[in-house]
Design goal:
It is found in: Cell membrane; Bacterial flagellum basal body. 74% of the residues lie in helices and 2% in strands. The protein is built from 11 helices and 2 strands, in the order αββαααααααααα. Strands 1-2 form a two-stranded antiparallel sheet. The longest helix has 40 residues.
């Protein structure tokens, strides 16, 4: 009983001390917040707000968390990585090239293909923002325009019509009025379809080699020999003789009409 009363007294005392500290912090916070440099927003003549450079930098760093989603949804990365994965499956090389190598090739090829778009974003949006010619809201509007043009050029009209109907957007005067919530899934759907079409074309010559090797082994009565063991060297030789990497990478880059 004595220990219980002592514990209750300590708990009550600590609770009051914690309450006093919290109230003191709340009272002192406004005076310290006024001393924070740069984290302010000022109204502009047009009715908007001009955010300080410190706050813009904070928002920009916070937006880096969405970089993987942006990379997958708004660039050529999806088509490239799917085609490279299907190429590895068609050749039957299992884990060669490794996933890290495929990701590296896809990332650098994506950067190469998206360079015109990134340069346009830099010239029309980033440079005016750093020169304090435009505010952060105008920067976002200008930055999305090159990506919208790129995605619209790669998106099929049936896919756009499907998501416009599902989103119940209503009549639109032109593609420039499409909201991003409609354009993004339509673009990804078109990219998946294009990637599988390219992958089907890649599979055909390797499939023919597999059929020829399997038929030859059956004719020779070599049922116990895995066909992949015999066909893999022929696939590699064919791929090297036709300069397969140049054909694949060149065809992928040209499929975006960026060169």
């Amino acid at each position: 009983m004595k220990y219980a009363q002592h514990f209750a007294w300590l708990y009550s005392r600590h609770w009051w001390l914690m309450s006093i500290l919290i109230i003191g912090c709340l009272v002192a916070f406004p005076s310290h917040a006024q001393q924070l440099p740069g984290l302010v927003s000022q109204p502009t003549e047009g009715g908007g707000q001009q955010w300080s450079l410190s706050l813009q930098t904070l928002l920009l760093l916070s937006s880096l968390a969405f970089l993987p989603a942006i990379l997958l949804m708004m660039t050529s990365f999806t088509r490239i990585i799917i085609v490279l994965s299907l190429l590895r499956t068609a050749m039957g090389t299992q884990a060669t090239p490794p996933n890290q190598v495929l990701l590296g090739i896809a990332l650098f090829l994506t950067f190469f293909i998206m360079s015109p778009v990134l340069n346009q974003v830099y010239d029309t949006a980033w440079v005016p923002l750093t020169d304090e010619v435009i505010n952060f809201e105008e920067f976002l509007l200008r930055a999305q325009l090159p990506f919208r043009e790129f995605m619209l050029a790669q998106t099929r009209e049936p896919d756009l019509a499907l998501f416009v109907r599902l989103a119940d957007v209503g009549p639109l005067q032109g593609p420039e009025e499409l909201p991003m919530r409609v354009l993004l899934p339509a673009f990804v759907t078109s990219e998946l379809k294009t990637a599988f079409q390219i992958g089907f074309t890649i599979f055909i010559p390797f499939l023919i080699i597999d059929l020829v090797v399997a038929s030859t082994l059956m004719a020779l009565g070599m049922m116990m020999v895995p066909p992949i063991t015999i066909s893999l060297p022929f696939k590699l030789m064919l791929f090297v003789l036709v300069d397969g990497w140049q054909l694949i990478i060149g065809s992928l880059a040209e499929s975006f009409y960026m060169i």
